[in-house]
Amino acid sequence: MSTLMRVFAVAFALLVPGSVVADNGLKKFTDVLNALAKQAGGPKGNLIVNGGFEQPVVQQGGYVTYQPGQSFTGWQVIGPSGGVSPISGNYTNAGVRFVAREGMQWLDMTGPSANTGAGVQQTVRATPGQVYDLAFWVGNVSAGGFGTVSTVEVFVDGQSLGLARNDQTIPGQQGWGLFKMQVTATGNTMTLAFVNQDPSNDNSNGLDAVSLVPAQVTSASATPSPAAAPAPTVVAAQAAAPSAAAATSPTAAPEPAAAPPGGQTQLSAAETNAVFKAAGFKNTGGQWRSDCDDPGTPSYSPGSIDKVEDLNGDGRPEVVLIEGGTYCYGMTGQGYWLVSQRGDDSWQLMDRGTGMVEVLATKGRDGWPDLSIGGPGFCFPVLRWNGSQYQRQRWQYDGKPCKPPG
After folding, report:
1. Residue 276, Ramachandran bin (φ over 0: left; ψ between -120 and 50: alpha; else beta)
2. Section 76-92 average pLDDT
3. Residue 132 lies in a domain
4. 261 CB contacts (<8 Å, ≥6 apart)?
5. 3-state DSSP helix/strand/coil percent for the chain, to nearest 5?
6. Rounded to whole angstroms, how far apart are CA atoms 355 and 43?
7. Same-domain check for residues 161 and 298
8. Do 39 and 147 fall into the same domain?
9. Range of the domain at 131
10. pTM (2 decimals)?
11. Which parts of 22-173 are beta strand (E)?
């Protein structure tokens, strides 16, 4: 099936300029990651049915195709003729191994032939105003007939969240990478759609391990959070939304999550203002904006509070701010700022950069945690506090040392 999957491979690899070429070591590493991938079904509380495309069970090394208007477990096929294909992770073509990211199967968005605009959608029950974490994996194959870049457009209730692109290259094998974003429900249901936007001569675009779970959100900003903040590798969408999904109206800011014991997790309006100002933001037209000076591109999302937590154990909160958009942050799509409250209740900027911040359990000086800065690819820098600033200390992926890109 020359159309195999150009699934959302390596969300983070997209952030790295140019293609990411894996050597044999990386190939073995990704094989191990695939082998250790958790069983199909996704994380606990996943609202998506059949997010790993394990149903229907297809013949080993084979696939089955569904046309627009047809359905298979959990999913409805949308778009032009040609359809999509649940496919075996043992499928090979032209010497290329089309491995699954999760379980034994994945979805080829191009079906038996290239089908721009074909895709799948699923409607789930939701709670109005609830923020949800949407995650999915994409893979790319760069070989004759399979194209060089995978592009999938993501829609929620007919509203495009943008294009997710992957240009990772692993010789002889499909590569995978993770895409994440948050969406806010506006009604009692939510319809998610994934649409192939590869050109007509590209016969590989896949999707796997789709999950949607309620987010543990702390809402502390005076400015309403955007309805759906794009993931680092998502860029502005330009194609029309699938006709099967209805348009959505702007969403309200989510209710604050319950505060866990052990520290402040919400800010007052005065604290919020002070935090953003310490990070160098200005309130313009009701939006907190950094010195990025985005001219108003479709991918832009203004500054918002991502996390409020006592990170260094001194009894005072730290705050992670984020701002989205490809104009300033490239394919990573997001900038971050770490701000800390001092003993005199003033706020100090500790670090800023481009990427998605993950707070790690390992620590540097004075109890400050290490920070993993996510982006495209399978290897991320880890920053450590040296007593005066955060500096890159190592590279790792899933808690293991890795070879940095380039």
Report:
1. alpha
2. 88
3. yes
4. none
5. 10, 40, 50
6. 23
7. no
8. yes
9. 12-217
10. 0.49
11. 71-72, 75-78, 85-88, 92-93, 96-97, 105-108, 119-125, 131-140, 150-156, 159-166
